[in-house]
Each structure stands twice: as C-alpha cells, then as structure tokens.
Amino acid sequence: MQLESKVPAGPLTEKWDKHRAEMKLVNPANKRKFRVIVVGTGLAGASASASLAELGYDVDAFCYQDSARRAHSIAAQGGINAAKNYPNDGDSVWRLFYDTIKGGDYRSREANVYRLAQVSNHIIDQCTAQGVPFAREYGGLLDNRSFGGAQVSRTFYARGQTGQQLLLGAYQALMRQVHLGKVSIYPRSEMLDVVLENGRAVGIVTRNLMTGEVRSWAADAVVLATGGYGNAFYLSTNAKGCNVTAAYRAYKRGAGFANPCFTQIHPTCIPVSGDHQSKLTLMSESLRNDGRVWVSKTTGDKRAPGDIPDDERDYYLERRYPSFGNLVPRDVASRAAKQVCDEGRGVGSSGLGVYLDFRDSINRVGEDGIRQRYGNLFHMYEKITAENPYQVPMRIYPAVHYTMGGVWVDYNLMTTIPGLYAIGEANFSDHGANRLGASALMQGLADGYFVLPYTIGDYIAQAGPSGAKSTDAAFTDVESEVNERTRKLLTRKGKRTPDSFHKELGKIMWDECGMSRNAEGLKQAIQRIPELREEFWESVRVTGAREELNQTLEKAGRVADFLEFGELMCRDALQREESCGGHFREEFQSEEGEALRDDEKFAHASVWEFKGDGAEPALHKEELEFENVTLTTRSYK
Amino acid sequence: MNWLLRGLRSSVGLKFVMAVTGLLLFGFVLAHLAGNLQIFAGADQLNGYAKSLQDLGPLLWVARGGLLAIFVLHVGTGVMLARRNRAARGTPYAVQKAIDSTHASRAMVSTGVVVMIFVVYHLMHFTLGVGIRPEFHDWTDPQGRHDVYSMVVAGFQQLPIALFYIVSMLGLGVHLSHGLASMFQSLGWNQPKYRSFTRLLGIGITAVIILGNISMPVAAQFGLIELPEWNPLVNGGN
Amino acid sequence: MKLTLRIWRQKNAQDKGGLETHQLDDVSPDMSFLEMLDVLNEDLLEKGTEPIAFDHDCREGICGTCSLMIDGVPHGPDRGTTACQLHMRTFKDGDTLTIEPWRAKAFPVVKDLVVDRTSFDRIIQAGGYVSVNTGGAPDANLIPIPKAEADVAMDAAACIGCGACVAACKNASAMLFVAAKAGHLGHLPQGEVEKKARARAMVHQMDEEGFGACTNTYDCEAACPKEISVEFIAELHRDYRKGLFSGR
C-alpha cells in the first residue's frame, strides 16, 4: 500500500491556493457526462452532492435514513468554528490552525488542517447566504461565543441546534438540485459494498431498505460521507443507525484505514440508567462554563449531594488543573471522571457518574440567569432523569461521541483506492488524536463545499470516464457476495438477537478500548472479539425475509461489521504505545497520571491494510511532518 | 385568469374563498339582526323597515341573487374542502384525541349543515310564506303594509318553532365562533400580537349575534312582545 | 410497571393490517418509550416472532425520525416532546396504550409503524430553499438582520420534519410543516427574495401530495414537538395571497 499524502510543496499558507491553480479542470460542457456517487447525506455528503451538482456533474446520493435531512449531523448542538475574528479578539486563520493541530495532540496533517482553517470563513458566508439562522446580536451582526475552552470567541451557533440548521441548509441546497434534476436521491438505501474495476472505484452495491432489492450503481467516482463508527461501543451519542459498514467495506476492498483507535469520549453525557439503555444523550459542554464538577472525598459515600458539606467534596478538576479547572479539554475531563469512579467515589445508583453542580452559579447570577443560559438543556435533563438540576446537581458521565480515525485520505481526500473519496467524519484527516469542540461541523462542510468539488474535478479530468456499467461482471460478482452474506444472516436460526451481540461487543470495547487502555486488556479483547464473532455467525437469530423492510436484518449486518472492526480498533490501540489525545494507554502516563506522548516513535498516522479474512492486517505508517509548529506537551495545570 | 383559478383551487385558495364568502355572509347576518331587532321598537317600526326593503324593487332581487351566489359558493367550497380533507386521512385512527382544538373548530361541517337547514326553513317560513300556516303571510297592518311584526310574533309564540330557532342560532353561534377568528388566520391577517384579540373578537361578536337573535323567540315565548290588536288571531278569529 | 400495548401490525403497504395486543410486565419508569419497544422487540425476536418495525434514529429529539401515534396523540401526551424523549414514568402501572403509525394518504404505511414521508422532501424540493450556489456568497456580516427577526426565523427553523402536525390534524394537512419552512426563510433577507414564489410552489406541491387543507383547528401546534406556532401559517397565507395577486 502506497501512502502518498500528495501535500503540495511550498509554504503552508500558499499550498491550497497553489494546488487549486495547478489542478486540471473538466470542461463545463463535459461535466454532465460524469456521474459521482455520494453515500451519506450529512453535512459532508449533502454539501458535496449539492456542490458537485451545481458544478454540472450528475450525482446519485444515498442515505439509510428515510430522508436526507435526518443524518446525524443534525444532532450537533454547540456550534461551528471559523476564523472570522468578528469579535476582534485576535483570532486568525493561523490561530485556528494552530489550536486545531495542538488540540489534536499533533497527530494530524499540517497542510490539511491549515486548509480547513482557511476555508472556515467561506463556510459561514455560504451558510448565511443559504438562510441558516445563526444567532445575532442586537446590532444585527453575527454573535460568537467561546466554546470548548478556546481562548477566542470563534464559534457561530444557532441556539442549541447548530448542526440541525447547518444540515438543513445543505439539505435544502441538495433538494434544490434534486428539483433541477441534477441529483437523484435514494433514501432508505444502505451501501453494502464498493465495486472496483482495474483498481479503480467505479460504483457501489446497495440494498433498498424498503423492498430489500440489492442493486448496483456505476459511476466515475465514489464519495463516502458515511460518518463515524462510535456505535462500535453500542452505547454512544451517535444515532442508532450510525454504522461502520460503508467505510469497513471500503477497507476490505483495499482502502487504508487510519488510526481506528482514536475515539473521542465526551465528558458531559447523562449517565446510563439501566440495562434497557439504548443510547446516550449529550449535554452541551458549555455547561462546564458554570457548573462545578465534584464527587465525595470518601469512597462509597451514599449521602444525598446536598448533605455533603463543602469540605468533604472533592472538586477534582479544580484541584488537579488549577488554571483550566472545569474547562479542561474533553479527553482530560473524561479521564479524570473515570478515575474518580474507578476509586469508588462515583455517584448515582450505578456509581458511574460525577456531579455537575450549579449551586454556586445560581447563588451568583440567580436561577433566572442560569435558566437564560441553559434553560433548554436543564429542561432536557429533567425530562430524561426526572431530577430538577436547579435543586440537585446534575449527574454526568463520559460517553463515546466522535471518532477521529477513519478512512485514510490524501490531501485531495482520496483514499488509497483511486476514484474513492472519504469526507467528513468518515475520513481521518483533520482532528488528529482529539477533536476540538465545534470543529466537526466545520470539517464536514469544508470537505463538502470547498475541497472535494475541486479535487474530484482534478481526478476526473485526468482519469476520464470509468466506462463502467452496472451490468459488468465486477458488479454482479459483488452483488452475489452481498446476497450470499444476507442469506447467511437469514439462515442462522440461532437463539441470540443481533442487539445482544452488539451490547456484548460494546462492553468489551468500552472496558478494554475505551477511556483508558492497557496492553493486557487489549490483547484479551483481540482474543475475545473473534470468539464473539464466531458465536454470532453460529447463533444469531434474524427473522423475516430479505425482500422486505427488515430492521433486524439491517441491524445484524451492521453488527457483523462492527464485530470485525472492533478488533481492528483494539489492534491499533495496542500498537500505539503512547498516550495522545483520546487514546490513553495506562502504561504511558506521568506520575501525576497525565498522558505521555511519544513523538519520536509515534508522530505518524497508523494505516491498516486488509489482508484477508482471518489474516492479520498489515500496518503502514504515514509520517507526519511538522514544519510550521513545534510539538509541545499539552498542559492545563 | 388561469392563474387566479389555479391559485384559488389550491387548499389555501379555497380557504380564501371560505373566508371571504364567510365574511360577507357574516355581514349579512349582522345587518339582518339589526333589522330584526327593530321588533322591540314595535310593529310600526318593523313593518316600516320591511316596506322600505320591499320598495327597493329590482335592487332587492339583485341583493338576493348576490347573497344566494355567496351562500352557494361558501357551501360548495366547504363541501369540496371537507371531501378533500376526508380523503387526505385515508385509513382512520383507532384512537385519536383532540389536543387543543375546540369542538367548534372540528364541527364546522355539522354546524354548517344545521345552519343550512335553518336557512332553508327560514326562507320558506318568512320569505316565501309556504309550508307552515301560509295565511300568516297575507296579513297586513292598518297602513296596509305587509304585517311582518305579526308574522314573527305569531311564529315565535309556537314553542316548537321558537325552540327550532334557538337551537339553530346556537348552531350558527358555534359556527361563527370558529369561523370569525379563523377568517383572520385564513386571510393572513393574524398576527402574534392580535391572536388573543381576534379570538375574543370572534367569541364576542358571536355572542352578540346569538343573544340578539335568540332574544326574539324568547321574548315572544315570555309574552314580552305580543300580537297587535289588529291581528285576526287576537280577536279569536281563525 | 405493567402495560398492555395495542400495536398496529401491517406486513406491507398492500396488507390491511390490524391491532395486536402485547403485555409487558417489567417496564422501568426510566425507560424511554422507544426503549420500551426495544424490550418488547427483543422479547419477540427471542421467541422467533418478527419484531415490530418502527422508525427511530437519533433518540434525542432532533432528527424527526420517530413517528408514533400514542393513544391518539402524536409522540404521546407530553407537550413539546418527541416519542424518543418520552419516558415511561409519564404512564401509570396497568395502563393500556394504543400505538399506531401516522395516518395520511401522503404518508403511506410501509410496514407496521413505519410510514413513507418522502412527500415532505418533495415539498422542500418544490421551493423550500434559497436559490444560491456554493461559492460567491458575500461576507456573512454584510446584511445585518435584526435580532428579533433572526429569532423568529429560528423559531420556525426548529421544525424537525417529523410529521406530527399532519398526524394530529383532522384533515391530515401539512400546513404547519410548509409554513415553518416558508417562515424560516421568509424572515431572513436572504430568503425573502423568493418568498411569494416559494409559498405558491410549496402549497401546490403539498396539495399534489394529497395532504388535506388547514381548517385552523391548531392541533398541529399542540402536537408539534418543537411547539412551532400557527402564526407561521397565517404568514404563509399572506405570502400566498400576495403572490396570487402580484402577477409574478
């Protein structure tokens, strides 16, 4: 596997401009002769589909949801970063670039991140022109807030529904192209494989979730905008349908998969309430601006929070990180919560939770002041837990939220398979080992609106038409493989439900490959997961038929892929013998329990190549070169 | 004119037609009430008013024709909407509950039917003078004018007729209580600031109309208005 | 707590379908409504019976996928709450609940509780957007927008496209959905340009899809999980009226 990053030469600030100037163009009259498949209609997919169609390409867009508008980008609450510097507080493209690369613990590619910061401003302009109702000040100009511990206010937001509003903007642009006949949209369609001819990606095979029809689609290029794989943990803040299947299928067809172990655990989620729990709900991390995190100083303290006097409380974030206090980055806050719970000081019936207490803020600004800032979040919390957070402290616990790892892509967002692209959360490129708050939306839209539409043209201009037809042997072969797999799932007639396997896998992943990892646990997981996989294929029970809406079958197919992918995550975590960002290896920590990064051995992206079922995947490395920033240790003390 | 027809045939266009014809019919109801209330000023006043209307001659027929057209348009559009709306549901729910909607808003078709039956009866009763006691229609007062006053009082003195009028007026009231406020919404005149105002206005005006209309049969039943001495019924005749 | 569930089962679009009764004996009040259905489905699957198909995805009240008529009210009895955020503590031990799919000609049932809402997408395709291409947008701060206007736009934009308004309406009208989108864009200068044409195109598409007409009962507003106001419907009427007579 060749890992050519294709980062253009020249000074960092000029790379993208120079690259754009040198890219080959497709004649406007010829664009309509080319067809691009885009899988996924979240921020990245919808924005890419719309932009490509506007340029003149014919686009086939697919999503598993019943409408393109429901992709999980919609759930992002906080906001979107941009280097506009409207508040005049010293922000710049360079600073956004620097913060992102440092926040990612120096495990991302400089040139990609710089380009991201460069196009961030266009995103805000574009979205405003589309009618995204960003929050405004009384003067009518856009409001910004500081988010996720950033030192500048660069986050644009639309109440607590920024992801929703940005997605609706992209969705509407997409619907406009559907109306104009440039995009054909196929909702309730799941991509089950990618098809290659002569090493080039030329199409996909999908299953129509309403009718069960398995069908081939040929094109000149294929774009995966299929999101992250957080549901490998079963419980996460992802939507129930989010899955790794598309990305994993691409991996099995030869696309390199980078840094699968880099997962982000968000510190402020509502704790699990019982075995029935099906997903976790995020509470915006803006709550940490006013809430204080604490647990009792003694283990097994069963007193009600109000009965624990101040001197018996341990405000552990403020104690350990006096300068950042409750506002330390996500990975640090999550780990600290896990540590106090591991010590037996966790709160709530499960002992897996810490208090987020607004008592002092309410005393300072009054209940109304707090209501104004967080009313909707408090309301949501009360709905779910039946506890009033104005009177008793919230209980929070970390939960899987985002995956920084993903399909490896070069500077042009192309995977190791020519003609196959990966954008948004599905790729690995911009967030390194840890993503900063309000940067996911930025990256999804940057890829879709302002990067991919250029780079894909360069490819198409050079590669020319694929000439592939959906009746080619390459397609029918893959179709039979897909059908065979479905048949297998439907004929196991075992006793266990797909969900029961998913839950069991999730527990292994959370225990061994979650907030902190160690070699021994990971090795156990690498042994345990294949066993579970074997059991799955022996004794999973899938009812119903293939040629109909069959949600059990859908679930089983996704779990089957997670059962393979989970192992890859653990392998990646095992080989990365350092602690960086969201990846914390217990063997690599300082005496105070802080992460120890190893830039000498691990300043690279770990890229995995599939070597066949049952065979160990091969590890490749893309060395990360830092020409513009100096690698420092993150310190929040 | 195609654009207009196309526009008015849409669901929103049909609502405009409902609202505008409804408004005109409402205006008629209001004027009609103002005329009728003159009954409390005595036979002379009412019969004089009736004569002035009769004297309009051909103009009266134009007005009647216009009114009929509006009425037919209102009912016809209502039927069209009702049919379209029923088809839009398809399979009915096993259980469906009203959440905030009022009974009035959900019963526009049934109250509309009540009003329509009433209008037909009312026209036969007073305008055409057919059906019930046709001789009432030929009464005249001492000035030789058509004796509307006697006709009304004699009609309302009969309990079944009085009750029919009262029930029908309640039906009209329910119809208007939703229809009036709804009109503001349908024509796009509703504003957040005025929402409670239009709602109150609807209910208030409706109350005035209904109380006014009901006051006449009630008054006749309780002997507050009586037949004049010249009426043949008073002298035990007929 | 114990519950009796009467759930609509329908094999496919052609099937007639009917209510099926299930007993659940061990429902935790902390479960969400959908988690309660998960438990039932796991149970059914273990017995070898086909689970009940129902739509859901984000389970945090924002994607608009869940679509259950719970005891005659879309998304169940809690105001401003989607079914996925509805918790079982809202109900009492021993309750009998009827669960049905959205009912509308424009939302045909696919299977059990799953309906096809692509008609909503087609309404948006008809005009629910601002006609701008990517690139070339002026600076975001070029046009100041009064905060109050932006806030109203956001109120309307909060629509999650779930279809509860249609489900609640006795006429299966989609007016609140259409009005929310038209209101969102119409209150912003970027969207105002196409306001009248948009109102016309979206209303006509709504009619074409077979949705009913609005008769101002306002059950849509009461059922809306985002509590979107019917004022937007009045505004849509206004825009439509202006568009009708403006000749453009």
Count of distinct strands of chain A? 19
| Cα distance spanning the termini of chain B | 59 Å
Could you say what the CATH topology of the domain at 265-398 in chain A is called? Flavocytochrome C3, Chain A, domain 1
What is the fold named in CATH at topology level of chain B? 3 helical TM bundles of succinate and fumarate reductases
Largest interface: A-C, 81 and 77 residues
- End-to-end distance of chain A: 42 Å
Percent of residues in β-strands of chain A:
5-15%
CATH architecture of chain B: Up-down Bundle
Class computed from helices, strands and strand pairing of chain A:
alpha+beta
Regions with little confidence, pLDDT below 50 for 5+ residues of chain A: none
Low-confidence stretches of chain B: none
Helix content of chain B: over 70%
Helix content of chain A: 25-40%
Roughly what is the average pLDDT of chain A, rounded to an integer?
Answer: 96
Structural shape of chain A = globular
Major sheet characteristics of chain A: 5 strands, parallel
- Give me the count of strands of chain B: 0
Short description:
By secondary structure, chain B is mostly helical. Helices cover 70% and strands 0% of the residues of chain B.
Written overview of the protein:
- The complex is a heterotrimer of chains A (637), B (238) and C (248).
- Chain A is of the alpha+beta class and 637 residues long.
- Chain A is globular.
- The model of chain A has no long low-confidence stretch (mean pLDDT 96).
- Chain A is built from 16 helices and 19 strands.
- The longest helix of chain A has 27 residues.
- In chain B, helix 2 runs parallel beside helix 9.
- Helices cover 70% and strands 0% of the residues of chain B.
- The relative contact order of chain B is 0.12.
- Chain B has a single domain, classed as 3 helical TM bundles of succinate and fumarate reductases, CATH 1.20.1300.
- Chain C has 248 residues and is α+β, with helices and mostly antiparallel strands.
- Chain C has 2 domains: 109 residues, Ubiquitin-like (UB roll), CATH 3.10.20; 129 residues, Orthogonal Bundle (Fumarate Reductase Iron-sulfur Protein, Chain B, domain 2), CATH 1.10.1060.
- The longest helix of chain C is centred in the C-terminal third of the chain and has 16 residues.
- Classes of the chains: A alpha+beta (637), B mainly alpha (238), C alpha+beta (248).
- At the A-C interface, helix 3, helix 5, helix 6, helix 10 and helix 11 of A face helix 1, helix 2 and helix 3 of C.
